[in-house]
Write a structure and sequence with these properties.
Rossmann fold; eight-stranded parallel beta sheet; 15 helices; 20 strands; about 15% strand; globular
Length: about 500
């Protein structure tokens, strides 16, 4: 293994694993085990690792210094920072409205800017690989695992916006990961809880694979395999453990890193032991196997990997190829954290662009002509997830949906969904998911979907004068919504998914 620059079996074993840990410094026990004892050079960060941007930059610098002291090219420090629903570091960072909002805008320039903002903030904190973008084509709109994380139902749009997002990350020196190959967008089952099975023809499957082919041609750095059993590829094991899925990616001409989704998700963890997962993943040809959370599980995975390396049970050329890919990417993505990351992360400029983008994404589905006559003292009713304050980018503080309304100049009264006296002429009804539907009042001035608008299918929209899709419950999207009500926002969004024959993909009531 000398040709890769790796001299010890422990380094070889560690290089093929990606672990997360609890704590905010290398002095914390979990971090010490992962970094100092097991020499894992691929680290997945979460909000649990964030105290403030400067602390994260210190943490990432110390991780990278330790990794390079072992003779490796550097650390790969990763995070799922997609925008919208999935922001693994929601505090301080700019809460970009997410993929479906970008799909509603439909412009590559906006996707590129979103990727650029996310990339600049990650780079400032020393994070060099984003586990984004999601390239799943949403053919099953009620998918609980993909939902508004998708750009939409059109493979061509997903391909173009995904590639533009990747370009935005690259402009900041941050790597990108296309996920979840071969496409999670035709499943209802969430792989965090069970293993979804996809029975598509080869022709149908190609629609889901197409965005990944496009991303490979546009220089994506990594491809993440999803925990999906796809009969057209491999009917025995999920794609994340399948040699056929790995070969399919390689046959696209991709020579970058192939990584797994987190192997602690129940889709695989309920079916295989950590040792079996390592065996199957190595046999399949994955470059990096991810275990994000549990120390006990991580130890079993590391011990198994080290045992296989020490015994010589894994072909040396196979190991060398994976480690060389990892080393080449780590060398290319060597970035220096900012000495003042707090001036970049959640900056005023980024937040202003975020609100502007969220405004453009707003899709007025019904009642465009009614927007100019809002109630003078609206009654805002909101779902439980907005009862807890929402993080504000840049400030590290918190603010509620009602607080954002008042900040925008709206003299609002606020109650939770299902509570308080109904006054339809005053009501602005916010909801997020199917779980909120039973509490929706039958009438109101405005109804707002803050997530995947597919759930509007189950609502009698005739009881509302105005119906809007915002695609996100984050600060920028709420700020844009209330700017719309105040007449300060010109929405440009069109539905990126089909709700019905009368509400097809591309719909906005401004067409009426």
């Amino acid at each position: 293994m000398r040709s890769t620059g790796i001299f010890e079996p422990e380094d070889i074993a560690g290089s093929m694993l990606a672990f997360g840990f609890d704590g905010v410094s290398l002095k914390d026990d979990h971090a010490r085990r992962v970094i100092a004892e097991w020499n894992i050079p691929n680290i997945v960060l979460f909000n649990r690792n964030l105290r403030d941007p400067r602390q994260v930059s210190i943490l990432t610098r110390s991780i990278d210094e330790h990794v390079r002291s072992r003779g490796l090219s550097g650390a790969l420090i990763m995070v799922d920072q997609e925008g919208g629903m999935v922001l693994r570091m929601p505090r301080y960072t700019t809460p970009m409205p997410g993929n479906m909002a970008l799909g509603a805008i439909g412009l590559e320039s906006e996707a590129r800017q979103a990727g650029g903002i996310i990339g600049r903030e990650l780079a400032a904190m020393g994070i060099n690989l984003d586990l984004a973008p999601v390239l799943d084509v949403l053919k099953e709109p009620e998918s609980s695992v993909v939902s508004e994380r998708s750009f939409g139902e059109n493979p061509e749009l997903v391909s173009k916006l995904g590639a533009a997002f990747i370009e935005g990350l690259h402009s900041s020196g941050v790597g990108a990961t296309a996920k979840h190959f071969p496409g999670h967008g035709s499943t209802i089952i969430d792989s965090h809880y069970d293993l979804p099975r996809v029975r598509l023809s080869a022709l149908e499957l190609e629609e889901h694979v197409a965005p990944f082919r496009y991303a490979v041609r546009r220089g994506v750095d990594a491809v993440m395999l999803g925990h999906i059993l796809v009969d057209a590829i491999d009917s025995k094991v999920p794609a994340s453990l399948s040699a056929r899925a790995v070969n399919m990616v390689r046959d696209m001409g991709f020579n970058g890193l192939i990584v797994s989704d987190c192997m602690e998700m129940k889709a695989v963890a309920s079916r295989y032991t950590p040792e079996q997962i390592v065996d199957l993943a190595l046999k399949a040809g994955l470059d990096i196997i991810m275990f994000s959370h549990t120390l006990r599980v991580q130890k079993r995975a590391y011990d198994r990997m080290l045992k296989l390396v020490l015994r010589g049970d894994v072909d040396e050329d196979r190991l060398k190829a994976s480690i060389t890919r990892r080393e080449m990417l780590a060398k290319r993505l060597r970035i220096k954290p900012s000495s003042r990351p707090e001036e970049i992360v959640g900056s005023k400029k980024h937040v202003e662009k975020c609100v502007e983008q969220a405004c453009r994404a707003l899709t007025v589905i019904r009642g465009c002509s009614k927007l100019g006559n809002p109630p003078s003292k609206p009654l805002i009713t909101y779902p439980p997830r907005l009862n807890a304050p929402s993080p504000v980018a840049g400030a590290g503080g918190v603010i509620s949906a009602c607080g954002i309304a008042r900040e925008t100049g709206i003299k609002a009264e606020c109650v939770r969904l299902g509570a308080g006296k109904l006054e339809p002429e005053r009501m602005i009804v916010l909801f997020y998911s199917a779980g909120d539907l039973s509490r929706l009042p039958p009438r109101g001035w405005m109804l707002v979907s803050l997530g995947n608008p597919v759930w509007l299918r189950q609502v009698d929209l005739s009881g509302y004068k105005v119906v809007v899709a915002a695609y996100s419950y984050r600060y920028c999207s709420l700020k844009a919504l209330f700017n719309l009500i105040k007449g300060r926002c010109r929405p440009k969004g069109r539905l990126p998914i089909t709700l019905s024959e009368k509400l097809p993909s591309g719909h906005t009531c401004f067409n009426d």
